[in-house]
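Page 42, continued from yesterday. The earlier attempt failed because a stray header line got pasted into the input along with the sequence. Redoing it now with the clean sequence only.
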Amino acid sequence: MSVYNRLQEATSHLTEDHQEDDPAQPLNLVDQYIALLLAIYLEAGLLEALVTLIEDVNGTLGRKATLLIGEVLQLANRLLPLEYAARIQASFPHK
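This time it went through. Structure tokens are written below.
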């Protein structure tokens, strides 16, 4: 999937459905499971590995890793406790 298609898909979701932005919406069992896996992967160093991959590789793989970082941060903001998501963003490797 190209970046252009993802952008079109994301903008169509924003105009169609605002339920994901509603903080009062309870999480279902699948969301809880994804949050657990996400926390485990983040504690294991997923973001650091993706940043290293982006720095070492040019081209399609680097672009996909960049998109994956965006998805991971978005999921963290939606599924994980706010303190945990803020700590992830604060500790994100900056250069």
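Notes: The chain has a mean pLDDT of 80.
Reminder to self: strip header lines before submitting.
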